[in-house]
Design brief:
Layout: H1 4-7, H2 16-74, H3 78-86, H4 98-109, H5 113-126, H6 131-152, H7 156-171, H8 180-184, H9 193-211, H10 227-250
Helix pairs in contact: 2-3, 2-4, 3-4, 4-5, 5-6, 6-7, 6-9, 7-9
């Protein structure tokens, strides 16, 4: 007769208590191995977890800074708008043109026009696709205001140069800037981008034309006759006078018309 305890893998001397103890020890060992595996997985994925948290935090902070910048600008708090916009510059991975664009717009509101121009030109270099549309319009507006300032200071030539630069920026805008997609991406949805562009171009052309210096009329100097010519003219005049006197004497003093000479 076959021994049943031998079939179960034990020995004839194994008691139920020994079997339960062995099973518990095997379970504890298995749990320890699982805990070690989970710990090493946690350590290995920690950098990815931190990166994900930073990623989400950066996105949220970008929206927060952008909202604060816009809110401050609408309230004419240009210093606050600039400060919030500069918060977007830190690790500027997403839409990199937005940070210098917002800073430049805030500086323009504070009448810091040269600094605003520099920031908007930086933004234009970073912008791609339809992003360039709203940047070009704001940059042209800043240049127009710089032209107005130059004109107020009596620098007509400088004003005309600024107007010309602004006009070049608007006329070189891509045709796609007239699309509905471009309007949706505008920094000011209430402003019709195409109409703003056309009005700006017309205004710049008029201002540039007003600052152009009038063309200098070339005064043709008539050559002065030489002494020899003067003597010849005097001889002809005297000869003509004598001929008229003689003709009048021959006609008996009748009245006639003088011949041109």
């Amino acid at each position: 007769m076959t021994d049943l305890s031998a079939r179960a893998g034990g020995t004839p001397s194994d008691s139920p208590e020994d079997l339960r103890a062995s099973a518990a020890a095997a379970l504890l060992a298995s749990n320890r191995r699982r805990r070690r595996i989970r710990r090493w997985i946690a350590i290995g994925t920690l950098p990815l977890t931190l990166a994900a948290l930073l990623f989400v935090g950066k996105i949220l902070s970008m929206y927060a800074f952008a909202h604060q910048s816009i809110t401050a600008y609408v309230a004419d708090d240009y210093a606050g708008s600039e400060a919030s916009a500069r918060g977007q510059e830190w690790v500027n991975w997403f839409e990199p043109f937005k940070a210098p664009f917002n800073v430049g717009t805030a500086l323009a509101g504070a009448e810091k026009l040269p600094d605003a121009r520099a920031k908007l030109e930086e933004s234009l270099d970073l912008a791609t696709g339809l992003e360039v549309c709203t940047v070009r319009i704001n940059l042209a507006l800043v240049l127009e205001r710089m032209g107005d300032a130059a004109r107020a200071e009596g620098d007509g030539a400088g004003a005309a140069e600024f107007y010309g630069e602004a006009l070049t920026i608007t006329t070189e805008m891509p045709e796609e800037c007239n699309s509905d997609e471009a309007q949706e991406q505008s920094s000011d949805p209430d402003r019709d981008m195409q109409q703003s562009r056309e009005d700006l171009e017309d205004r710049l052309k008029q201002k540039q034309q007003n600052e152009q210096p009038p063309p200098e009329e070339e005064q043709e100097q008539e050559p002065q006759p030489s002494d020899e010519k003067l003597e010849e003219l005097e001889d002809k005049l005297e000869q003509g006078t004598q001929e008229r006197d003689q003709q009048q004497g021959d006609d008996g003093g009748g009245s006639g018309t003088d011949k041109p000479w």
